[in-house]
Design goal:
With about 190 residues, the protein is of the alpha/beta class. The protein contains seven helices and four strands, in the order H-E-H-E-H-E-E-H-H-H-H. It folds into two domains: about 110 residues, Diaminopimelate Epimerase, Chain A, domain 1, CATH 3.10.310; about 30 residues.
Length: about 190
């Protein structure tokens, strides 16, 4: 009798919003990197162009209804990004999903926080503003912080060493010789 096979579950299938196919979106993105209702395409193309001028290969997908879970938008963005590459912004009326092969997740999450407007054009503008704004000079700030801590440590060491080698003078009342203090007693 053979032993039963142990089945290890693999990754779950991508959960896309209902009525949306990656193939349809990719076909719509081919001409201008925007898959959206016709009335919004021109303004969204302007934002995609602005992103490209700043070095971000952006594609924008607008879905007319919120899916049952917001993670479906990220799944869709990931699927589109895996096929098309670049940075993908997927918008629904109340949620946002992103993927990027060039921007880190922290940058994407911060940009997502600024896109919850309900207006795809304003949301895309806010997203582009966020990912193209210069970030703080973290390396310089870290070096300055390390130098400050090192200087404070050196100053503390110097002060303690100085106190140890040069004790503070005694109080004047304590310096009075014993003979003087006994002569004044009645």
């Amino acid at each position: 009798m053979s032993a039963p096979l142990l089945r290890i579950p693999g990754p779950s299938a991508t959960d896309l919003p209902p009525g949306v196919t990656v193939e349809t979106i990719l076909a719509d993105l081919r001409d201008d990197q925007v898959a959206a209702p016709a009335g919004q395409v021109d303004e969204l193309v302007a934002q995609v162009t602005r992103a490209r001028e700043n070095g971000i290969d952006l594609s924008v997908v607008v879905i007319d209804q919120d899916p049952r879970m917001d993670s479906q938008l990220r799944d869709l963005a990931t699927e589109v990004g895996a096929e098309d590459g670049g940075t993908v912004l997927v918008l629904s009326p109340g949620w946002v999903g992103t993927f990027s092969d060039s921007l880190d997740r922290v940058t994407l999450e911060a940009a997502e926080d600024k896109t919850y407007t309900g207006d795809p054009v304003v949301s895309t503008k806010n997203f582009v503003d966020s990912v193209t704004e210069p970030s703080p000079p973290w390396t310089l700030l870290t070096i300055l912080l390390v130098l400050f801590v090192a200087a404070a440590s050196a100053a503390t060491y110097w002060a303690k060493n100085r106190r140890r080698n040069h004790p503070a003078p005694e109080n004047a009342a304590e310096r009075t010789p014993a003979s003087e203090s006994s002569s004044t007693t009645p």
